[in-house]
Amino acid sequence: MTAEQIPGAAAASVPGAASAPGAAAASVPGAAPAAAQRVGEAPLLRIDGLSVDFHTDDGVVHAVTDVSLEVVAGEIVAIVGESGSGKTVTAMSVLRLLPKAAEVSADAIAFRGTDLRTLSGSELRKVRGGPVGMIFQDPMTALNPVMTIGAQVAEAVVLHQARSDKKAAWQRAVELLRLVGVPDPAERVKQYPHEFSGGMRQRAMIAMAIANDPDLIIADEPTTALDVTIQAQVLALLKKAQAETGAATILITHDLGIVAELADRVVVMYAGRVVETAGVGELFATPRHPYTKGLLASLPRMDVDVDQLDPIPGNPPNMADPPAGCAFHPRCPLARDKCLTDRPPLLAIGAGRTSACHFSEELA
Amino acid sequence: MGAFLVRRLSINVLVFFLITIAIFALVHKTPGDPIAMQIPADQLNSGSAEFIAQKRAELGLDGSLLTQYWHWLTNALHGDLGYSLLNGRPVTEVLGERVGPTVELMGVGLLVSVLIAFPLGILAARRRNSWLDYGATVVSLGSVSVPVFFVALIVIYVFTLKFQWFPSSGISDPTNPSLLNTLHHLVLPALILGFGNSGPFMRYVRSSMITELSADYVRTANAKGAPPRRVVLRHAFRNSLIPVLTVIASNLPQLLAGAVVIEQVFAWPGMGQLAVSSVNQHDYSVIVGFALLIAILVLMSNLLADVLYTVVDPRVRLR
Are A145 and A193 in contact (CB under 8 A)? Predict the structure, then answer.
């Protein structure tokens, strides 16, 4: 399903491009098309200058460095990158779900104007699972094996009830499971996770995430652990859940097919930094960073007859000892001397587009 | 779950029969005439040669080894374990009156060890590498490495001799054998038994909790907005119990071994005391009965572990 979508998406109109040129001048990468469209409206989520370090035996690992992004109400922002690019760490830092060993610093992580870093434990818990719902990668391990599905979904409801009403929460759990397409929910709600298939478990996860009508859903590789046939169903469900709740969504994925199908806007990450942001149409039509270009070239296409796919040579960098200069230079076909020493800053390259490449003009 | 239990139960029955063969071999190899273990001593001494021969035939002692085993086993299963060589009383009766006090001591001792180990293990896991964690490690190491009798002597010195808070011997005051009085007598031996067993339990709880606290479903619970207490107790702790319960159940024989020593120190009239005195006085029939009882205890502990498994882990029910 993924491959056919890409050409179509590439041909799609570019959302929000060329509007409000003033916004594009900002060096903040999040000042992107959708945000620009709604001038004056505060973004739903604003991450500014986020860095996350882990202290390991191999030294300090800069998992995320100086990442900024904005999400406005109702839009779907995809964060794309290889394993270890920092996309999951970025998303987890929003609700402060990183392990204690993580050293998080940022200028702001603001949700609806409130900096989540300043919230007390109980204030933060009102946001978690309430206005911000999360969907995790592996539904096999993300559900508690010794609690029934119903108890886990109902828990998400009860925790955000003004007055604890377990019976109502249980009924709501049944209703939520029906909503996400679990057949015979009144019975299946009594079952344990091991009695659910992978796809059904992910549906239950989605039910938990949307239990309290969130404004923002953070989905961390929601289909990666699933069979390809199930992936399509879960994606369709995510789309439906997003449409019904009107929640903005941060979609973390390495699958550009999913991006093409769902996202409005794309943030590409490499080695812990944002390397390119663009509307989904622009990104697929004219990638302005060689890494993005490489990602697209490595995809199979249905519309062009190719004998061979072009994978990006080499491997993602060791984050304990990343390359000097541009972190992508060892794998980059455009790399020149400058790239070995000077790290390219993330610069606005057009309306709502940014790129961190010295030679982004050459790609235009 | 029913099929699961039937399977476990039948395995245990099979093992039990294997054990009875081993114990029978022990009976067979004990010095002296086996008839002496199977009829009361006074009958043995006063009875005529014909009487003895008749009894021998009745008990199957003149038959083959197999018939002898069969007779011994059926008698044992009917609760007839022969007679004490020492005082001629039925072994079942002698053992029977000792089971209660030992079960009491072990039960309360187990409760104490769990009450020490669970909270300490959970706290140590939550605050890994903190002073609390190191302190708990030192305490647990101490609980296993300091001999029980030594702790017992110190405790008796402090709480019985110095402060005179608790009695140091017996199960109750003969003049006032109330429940409260028994509990009063139980405090020191149960605390020491419980403390001695808490160390390994605490280590298991700690390591199991550390594993569970880093599990994905804990992150899910956090992401739902569950408060830390709920995340730890409702989510992580219940999962951490799965391995811990097995350890505790399979540790019950160990607990009995500890009880034997403590019963000696505190003159607690339980099975342990009986076993020690029987060994000292070569009362083989009681020793055999004791061996059988321990075999049953170990098998029951394992069965209990299996049953608890199915209670805490829904995934086991399908197997």
Answer: yes
Find the range with the poorest average confidence among A60-64, A108-112, B301-305: B301-305
* CATH code of the domain covering residue B162: 1.10.3720.10
Amino acid type, B188:
L
What is the reported pLDDT for B115? 96
Residue in the block written with tokens 């984050």: A319
A117 touches chain B (CB under 8 A): no
pLDDT for A167-186, tens place per residue? Answer: 999 999 999 999 999 999 99
- B-chain residue closest to A98, CA distance: B219
Q: How far is B220 from chain A (nearest CA, A)?
A: 6
State which residue of chain B sits closest to A211, comparing Cα positions.
B224
Mean local confidence (pLDDT), B211-238: 94
Residue B84 lies in a domain: no
Domain count, chain B: 1
- Domains defined along chain A, listed by start: 2-131+212-344 (3.40.50.300), 139-211 (no CATH)
Q: Are A257 and A232 in contact (CB under 8 A)?
A: no
pLDDT in tens, A39-50: 456 799 999 999
Task: Report the helix count and the strand count for chain B, using DSSP H and E.
Answer: 15, 0
The complex's ipTM?
0.83
Provide the domain limits for residue B220: 91-318
Q: Do A146 and B223 touch (CB under 8 A)?
A: no
* Inter-residue contact B75 to B81 (CB < 8 Å): yes
The average pLDDT across B172-186 equals 80
- Which amino acid is located at B69 in the chain? Y
